Amino acid sequence: MEIEAALPPPSIRLNTTSRKYAFRALRLPTEHPISKALGLKNTDFPGQDDLSSPARFKEPQTTQLNRIKNSISELGDFSLLEPLRHFYFPPWNKTPPFTVNISELPKEEAALAHASSLKSLGKDDVLIYSDALVLPEETTGVGIGLVVLEYNTTSKSFEKTHQQSANIGPSQLVYNGELKGVTRAMEHTSLQAKPGRYFHIYSDNKAGIFRLQTPSDKPDQSHQIRAYKAAKTTTDLKAKISIEWVPGHNDIPGNELADSLAKRATKLPPESMEVSYASLSSKLKETSI
Q: CA 231, CA 188: separation in Å to the nearest integer?
């Protein structure tokens, strides 16, 4: 029956379910009963105030929860996990301080529409393209690239005025890099904002844009918090921000510049060894066979 249904043996299915449970437990608030149970120490046992009590010196028993937790210990260093701030975003205020525009056109048509939209922009508009990638060989992590284009009144065209590149480390996915790239673009706007300016941030990753658009306590929240703080500073200075999707590898000059910066960044020394939940989830799927 299992062979006909293409199901793994029960032991493998049970192990996979347990490891997924352990992964979810990592994301729980520290005040959650399961988090507390997984963090038991000797001083949590009865007799902690009585130095003569044998219970003071007992080693904590290995519980089923601890066994489940240890089942994913080889996936990474959990002390380097990205931070989560539970209940940071109030449920009554989840409107982002920026607009989002994701075209539903096919890639080729979306690229043409993007090129056409640039013709209507002028001196008050700033274009920021971000990109991220990882190369399979001779790299040290995920690279991100950021390029800023501003209108030159003399040449009457947009020209590069700023660029950034960084390697965010080996325990990240390209998705994490896309989020960080847009976040850094947001932080750049907060430094350059002034009344009347309109910052157009372009990314070719729809998943990253959707994540920034919807505040929550889920993984990659730290980028979201940084982006929202920067965007709030920018809008307080009477400037505007929009995040817009552009198709990658469709001869969009700004996107191509950001892509080349990201490629070079993959060979830079990593700026962090932080472990993302997305990379852990990817490893978990690889081992759940």
A: 10
Ordered structural domains, the chain, with CATH: 10-75 (no CATH), 99-287 (3.30.420.10)
Over residues 146-167, the pLDDT tens digits come to: 999 999 989 889 999 999 999 9
SS3 282: helix
DSSP secondary structure string, 144-162? Answer: EEEEEEEEETTTTEEEEEE
Cα separation of 77 and 176, whole Å?
Answer: 18
**169 secondary structure, DSSP code:** -
Rounded (5°) CA angle 103-108-111: 60
Cα 71 to Cα 7: distance, rounded to the nearest angstrom: 21
CB 96 within 8 A of CB 228: yes
Residue range 190-198: mean pLDDT, rounded: 96
Signed CA dihedral, 103, 104, 110, 116: sign only: negative
Task: Give the integer Cα–Cα distance in Å for 239 and 192.
Answer: 9
Tokens standing for 154? 């003399």
The identity of residue 174, as a single letter, is V
Residue 159's beta-bridge partner residues? 150
For residue 12, count other CB atoms closer than 10 A to its CB. 12
Q: Are 89 and 217 in contact (CB under 8 A)?
A: yes
pTM above 0.70, yes or no: yes
- Whole-angstrom Cα distance, residue 33 to residue 286? 29
Residue position matching structure tokens 């996990």 = 81
The order of strands in the sheet holding 99-101 is 99-101, 240-245, 198-203, 125-133, 143-152, 157-167
Task: Say whether 99 sits in a helix, a strand or coil.
Answer: strand
Q: Is the dihedral of CA 221, 184, 143, 179 positive or negative?
A: positive
